Amino acid sequence: DTAGFAGDLPSGGGDQEPSLLLRPIHVAPDEAVAGTYVDNLIKRARSETERKNYKAAIGKFSSALYQDPNSIVALFGRGVAYALRKEWAKAERDFTTCLEEGPNADEARHSATTFYNRGVARASLRNIQGAVEDFSCAVRLSKNELDYYFNRALCYRSRNDWPEALADYEAMNKIQDEAQKLIDEEKRKLEAQMSAAAASQE
To answer: What is the DSSP letter of 75?
Structure first.
């Protein structure tokens, strides 16, 4: 799931250009951070996030972390809530804690979503190099997620790295083309199956 927000990046040239809009924070954790919840506190915190009550969500995630300071899920969730409030420095801190500190950091480093979200926070803080590094980690872990390429391309464009940005857009086209081929093939199979079923009833 995603929740929208606009994060603008500075243009690379001297002329003013329209703001570049980042793709949004990913709200739901992937499997690498979807471990055991701290019972009802985290469930309630995620419900508050879904209702866009981000301040309440932050409070509940913080309470969960007080009970279990090593909870990746609570750190991830609080980072998301901070990001959706555009408190980027606090969001970056929580995602960094997920990735670099505590006994569960090795597990979190398999989470493309956490790298991606930290990249969004870093880009919004104008740490473009840090954002590029995070989006690149996300791409290595999950090669078919369009948002990862899209945001990295925006970062490249913001510093006039045109070939790198173009390569990311071409990668996005390839992913979409392969997905369309798969869809077309499955549609052909379904149509053949429907035709065979109709013929058998005649």
So the answer is: H
Cα distance between residue 13 and residue 150, in whole Å: 20
- Rounded Cα–Cα distance for residues 106 and 72 (Å): 11
pLDDT in tens, 3-12: 443 344 444 4
pTM of the model: 0.80
Helix (H) or strand (E) holding 150: helix 146-158
Find the Cα–Cα–Cα–Cα dihedral 134, 137, 139, 142, rounded to 10°.
Answer: -120
For the stretch 155-190, pLDDT in tens is 999 999 999 999 999 999 999 999 999 999 999 999
Give yes or no for a contact between 76 and 29, defined as CB atoms under 8 angstroms apart: yes
